[in-house]
Amino acid sequence: MQAIRTVESSGNYGAVGPTHPRYGRALGGYQIMEANLPAWSQQALGRFVNAGEFLKDAALQGLIASKQMAKLFQKFGNWHDVASAWLSGRSMAAAGNASDSLGTTVREYVAKVNSAMGQMSDAVKTGATAGTQ
Length: 133
Description:
By secondary structure, the protein is mainly alpha-helical. Helices cover 58% and strands 8% of the residues. Strand 2 (24-27) and strand 3 (32-33) form a beta hairpin. Helix 1 (2-9) crosses helix 7, helix 2 crosses helix 4 and helix 4 (58-76) crosses helix 5 (79-88). It is globular.
């Protein structure tokens, strides 16, 4: 989750991306699409969350993102496909050459997430993240 948040927003829980004509804005630390927020918040919390409430609450963002990523991991069984689905809604094999509205391809995105995970792993090994989550 932390690697995806790093790639999506550099950890900025108040981040708002450009508006997609079909899915609305990408919101928060995990850049959850505005169109997904009602259903995802209902599934995670049992209630709807609006964009304003979502952007003000990092813990809420983490809870909603964690529920969705857990579902994706259960479906695909690996983090490469979780990252692919976070960007495209599909596994790497099904996504093919798909890209987001900024032109980032699924393969580029997954590589960025993998790099971020590697950097986090290296930091843990050297003790650089002691006392942080």
